[in-house]
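This follows on from our talk about sequence and fold. Please put the record directly below this note.
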Amino acid sequence: MKKTVLLLALFFTISTLAQQIGDDTLGSWHMYFGTNKVSEKLSIHTEAQLRYYENGKNFNQLLLRTGLNYHINENAIATFGYGYIATDPTFEDFRILGIDAEVADSNIIEHRIFEQFILKNTVGQFKFEHRYRLEQRFINDKDFSGKDTQHRARYRLQVTYPLSKVFFLNFYDEIFLNLQDAVYGQNRLYGAIGANVFKNTSVQIGYLKNHFPSANFDRLQIGVFYNPDLRKKVKE
C-alpha cells in the first residue's frame, strides 16, 4: 500500500510541476541507452535521443552517442566516447553561445568528444551513482580546426530506490559548467518511475526540469535501457 501511495504521489508531483513551471509548452525526450558487454572489462555504450519542443512534435534535437567503457570494478567505470548532435538553432543553449537563429538557416551540427568516470555506492536500499564528464564540443566545425570549440564539465548525482523486484524510483540532478565565458551553463533535475521489464531491459517515464540562465524547459522523458551481454552470443 505504501509503495502504491509513493507511485501516485510521484505521478502527481510530475504532472503538477509540468503545469506550473518552466516554458509554456511541455516538450518530450524519447531515449534509448545501452551498455553492451563484450569482455570482462570492456563494454560499448550506445545511445540515441530524439527531443521535441512539444510532446512528440516540433523538432528540437537529435543526439547519437557511443563510447568504450572500461570497467575498473563493479563500482567504477571509465569511458571515452563520441557524440553527434543536430540541434534546432533556436534552442536556448545556442542562443547563449551567441548563434543567431535568423542567420543559421539549418540545424546546428555538433561533433562531441567526451571523457567520463562513474562511481557507484549503496546505502541501505538506496543506490547512488556519481557521473563526472568532460566534453569537447566542435560546433559547426567541419574540419575540427578548433575555431568553434566549446569545453564543458558535467556532474550528475543519481539515486535509485527499488519499490519491488519490478518497479523502482529514479532521481538525478546534473549541473553543466562551461570552461570558458560564463561558467554556469544549465541544471537538470529529474524524477521518474521505472520498471524492470526483462533481465537486461528496463523502461522509465519521468519529468525533467531543464534550467538555463535565462529560460526553463519542462520535458516529459520516456527511456528504454537495454544492457545485453554480447559475450554469450560469441560463445554460442
